[in-house]
Design goal:
mainly alpha; 4 helices; about 45% helix; about 10% strand; 19528_t:CDS:1
Amino acid sequence: MADLEHRFIGIRDLAYALIPKLKPHDVQVYIDMKLNDVVIRHLEKYRYQNYQFINDAKENYKPKFVELNHFSVFPHPRCKDEETSTSQ
């Protein structure tokens, strides 16, 4: 279990690094939801303007077996929608 917790901490740090606007509360919510609503994408293909959403992330994502340096973690699309609606 300690290994799993360590990986969640690493994912939180990765999210902070990649998404500067992400708030600590947002990150904690995603961790608490066991990453069911996150988006996972290979870092080599990472582009801010070209998110790739994986609908079945919760079925395919197995934290125990994921090497964090190969993946990015993004907020759920609805978070982006909320940001857009507030800026209008």
